[in-house]
Amino acid sequence: METHSQRFKIRLGLFVAGGLAIFILAIFIIGKQKNLFNPVYKLTATFYNVSGLQVGNNVRFSGINVGTVDNISIINDSTVRVDLLIKKEVKKFIKKDSEVAIGSEGLIGDRLVIITQGSSDSPLAGEGQELASLEPVETDAIMASLQVTAGFAEVISQQLAEIMVNINSGNGTLGRLINDSTIAQNLDKTMLNLKNSSKGLDENMEAVQHNILLKGFFNRKAKEAEKKRKAAENKIEAADTTKVEKL
Asked: What percent of the chain is predicted at pLDDT more than 70?
């Protein structure tokens, strides 16, 4: 006697086949992301602090994902070793003097390893090559610096607000100058007096130049100025002639 109907067996077979297909697809996707099916080679770097880097994080070169973090191990109390699996297709671009740094996906994203471009005349990095490293900047340190900057900005804003209040209230020299019309009128009168004084000085200088006793002095000064002007013009003409002859 059959304990299960034919329809139940078909459903069970479809369920098993679907689960197996999903499992294979998941393995394929994960393997592709972790470079399980691509030919790879290994590079290493050492850091004082990996700043939250984890095994499986991406490795980027020129902004492109080229590998993954294979292993992170503590060598001693001040050194952490990071092993990288890099696609062999980009091996021809990574040089021995390339440097390794730890960055992040955006401002608060996952950590990743960044390989910088080396010099054009440097040899290629081989299997197991250890690259120079750049220590990462901790997010906590950045936030602390931003907090200090924000504190300074707040103090400056408060001081500016106090200054503007004093100016609008007519306190201080600048406030009185802006709000007191009497001071502005006095400044206008002062400028007018200076203008009149300057005009009178020009007239006095003109009179002095026409004075018989000083006329010879001013004539000599004018002749000397004319000689200097002509000498400068002759130098310019000579220089232009030399340039034309060279051409």
From this structure: 68
